[in-house]
From TrEMBL:
<dbReference type="GO" id="GO:0004516">
    <property type="term" value="F:nicotinate phosphoribosyltransferase activity"/>
</dbReference>
<feature type="domain" description="Nicotinate phosphoribosyltransferase N-terminal">
    <location>
        <begin position="14"/>
        <end position="144"/>
    </location>
</feature>
<dbReference type="InterPro" id="IPR041619">
    <property type="entry name" value="NAPRTase_C"/>
</dbReference>
<dbReference type="InterPro" id="IPR013785">
    <property type="entry name" value="Aldolase_TIM"/>
</dbReference>
<dbReference type="InterPro" id="IPR040727">
    <property type="entry name" value="NAPRTase_N"/>
</dbReference>
<keyword id="KW-0436">Ligase</keyword>
<comment type="similarity">
    <text>Belongs to the NAPRTase family.</text>
</comment>
<dbReference type="InterPro" id="IPR036068">
    <property type="entry name" value="Nicotinate_pribotase-like_C"/>
</dbReference>
<keyword id="KW-0597">Phosphoprotein</keyword>
<comment type="function">
    <text>Catalyzes the first step in the biosynthesis of NAD from nicotinic acid, the ATP-dependent synthesis of beta-nicotinate D-ribonucleotide from nicotinate and 5-phospho-D-ribose 1-phosphate.</text>
</comment>
<comment type="pathway">
    <text>Cofactor biosynthesis; NAD(+) biosynthesis; nicotinate D-ribonucleotide from nicotinate: step 1/1.</text>
</comment>
<keyword id="KW-0808">Transferase</keyword>
<dbReference type="Pfam" id="PF17956">
    <property type="entry name" value="NAPRTase_C"/>
</dbReference>
<keyword id="KW-0328">Glycosyltransferase</keyword>
<dbReference type="GO" id="GO:0047280">
    <property type="term" value="F:nicotinamide phosphoribosyltransferase activity"/>
</dbReference>
<feature type="domain" description="Nicotinate/nicotinamide phosphoribosyltransferase">
    <location>
        <begin position="168"/>
        <end position="345"/>
    </location>
</feature>
<feature type="domain" description="Nicotinate phosphoribosyltransferase C-terminal">
    <location>
        <begin position="373"/>
        <end position="478"/>
    </location>
</feature>
Length: 491
């Protein structure tokens, strides 16, 4: 069963911006609703000033497409909308058309968990222009956020190294949707488990948790709180030790941990949630080891992110497990990925494809025309460069890659390099053709993908810029189109 249909009891065709529907009525009324078009979903900058992005959200996209339709209730609502003259915004004939609409689009996409870069299409949509237009907002919503969180998760997990990272962000997430999607994307990006029980059920993510300060505060003293918790949960004892005095809390946890051992159980860990985490973890580790509890893990939380984790490791912190919440699920330092969805080509009445280009005063916002594909090149050490090329180009793909923002930067790629196209068929004529993947498979792809890139590309600060560019013929065509559109006007 679709995950989205388990969360929502209705198809989500209205998960869109109003202007998609007003344009759809315009296409329908002008007789252009069936005109074939191609759109590309991409972003312009890596998040967090980083060197890469993890593509995520594709399985959500496929779930959304599987149940796409306009219900009678949807159409009744649209019929109630009025224009500024008080008349119905949408005609009854158009609304009737929507109730009969069946998706016939083709989608190509990079597999979920793929490492991607600015300007590369993550999803390519081809089909009747009205249908392509209706998909824009939902696709951006489903891909942008999960790609952002998966990338943040990958960065945090890289900072933690071999230590497991637990996602604890549900209470700070942006609503129910944000909480569920964040837990999924965080696990995909590398987190070992989540505190979010519903996400655990829906996505088969391992769930982990300790107890709150309120548990300790509800007892007369901390030791009694730990003893009662151990009695209730002898096989899941991770004690939160900083309710009052952290090191006293560690000593109380040790006392209960030794009692547990006598009864045939082992204390799993202690959690630090405040204070000088480096100092306290070192002191706590010494106390635990002296008591013979060398197997007890020290878990840390408290507004952690990749920068703080890196700093704590540099300070010699003896933390074995990292609980990360707010700064992960909210993507605290960059709360949005600037994904966009742009028209690349449209078929005219003769069946000929016309490439389309959006101009801008900012070079980074000028779109790339054509039906685009991404080719990744590899040598024996891993990924070397990515080339964006146009499948409409009748000429063989050249060996030269041109930086889209600085045409003077060019790279000649050896013909001996292994090459792989990233966009693969996922939907044909509205039907899913891609095999369903488990979240575990996608998670494994993330790690395999990251291993293909040099550490300089993956580092958190001032990363090396991985080479991505336009195939030479595409660059020349785009440049010519820009010049043609900007022909000099008399002054």
């Amino acid at each position: 069963m679709s995950k989205l249909s388990q969360i929502y009891q209705t198809p989500l065709a209205l998960l869109t911006d109003l202007y998609q529907l007003t344009m759809a009525q315009g296409y329908w009324k002008s007789g252009r609703s069936e005109q074939e078009a191609v759109f590309h979903l991409f972003f312009r900058k890596n998040p967090f000033q980083g060197g890469f992005t993890i593509a995520a959200g594709l399985e959500y996209v496929l779930d959304y497409l599987k149940q796409f339709r306009f219900t009678d209730c949807d159409v009744d609502y649209l019929a109630s909308l009025e224009g500024n003259d008080g008349a119905s915004l949408f005609s009854a004939e158009f609304l009737s058309y929507l109730t009969r609409l069946e998706l016939r689009c083709d989608l190509d996409a990079v597999p979920e968990g793929t490492v991607v870069f600015p300007h590369e299409p993550l999803v390519r949509v081809r089909g009747p222009i009205l249908q392509c237009q209706l998909l824009e907002t939902a696709l951006l919503n489903l891909v942008n956020y999960q790609s952002l969180i998966a990338t943040k998760s990958a960065r945090i997990c890289a900072a933690a190294g071999s230590d497991p990272v637990l996602e604890f962000g549900l209470r700070r997430a942006q609503g129910i949707d944000g909480g569920l999607a964040a837990s999924r994307a965080a696990y995909l990006g590398g987190c070992a488990a989540t505190s979010n029980v519903l996400a655990g059920k829906l996505f088969q993510i391992p769930v982990k948790g300790t107890h709150a300060h309120s548990w300790v505060m509800s007892f007369d003293d901390e030791l009694a709180a730990f003893e009662e918790y151990a009695d209730a949960m002898p096989n899941n004892c991770v004690f939160l030790v900083d309710t009052y005095d952290t090191l006293d809390g560690v000593r109380n946890a040790i006392q209960v941990g030794l009692q547990l051992r006598k009864s045939g159980h082992e204390m799993v860990g202690i959690r630090l949630d405040s204070g000088d985490l480096a100092y306290l973890s070192i002191e706590a580790r010494q106390l635990l080891d002296e008591a013979g509890l060398t197997n007890v893990a020290i878990v840390a939380s408290n507004d952690l992110d990749e920068g703080i984790i890196t700093s704590l490791k540099t300070q010699g912190a003896t933390i074995a497990v990292w609980g990360v919440g707010t700064k992960l699920v909210t993507a605290y330092d960059q709360p949005a990925l600037g994904g966009v969805y742009k028209l690349g080509a449209i078929q005219n009445e003769t069946g000929h494809w016309e490439r389309k280009l959006k101009l801008s005063e900012q070079a980074i916002k000028t779109s790339t025309p054509g039906i685009l594909q991404v080719r990744r090149f590899f040598n024996s050490e891993g990924a070397m460069a990515d080339m964006i090329y146009d499948e409409l180009n009748p000429q063989p793909v050249s060996d030269i890659v041109v930086d889209p923002l600085d045409p003077t930067r060019r790279r000649l790629l050896s013909r001996d390099l292994e090459a792989k196209d990233l966009l693969i068929p996922v939907v044909r004529a509205g039907q899913i053709v891609k095999e369903c993947e488990t979240l575990t498979q996608i998670r494994q792809r993330v790690q395999q993908q990251l291993s293909q890139f040099h550490t300089s590309v993956r580092r958190h600060t001032t990363p090396h810029e991985y080479p991505v560019g336009l195939e030479q013929e595409l660059h020349e065509f785009k440049t010519a189109e820009i010049l043609r559109a900007r022909h000099p006007h008399p002054m």
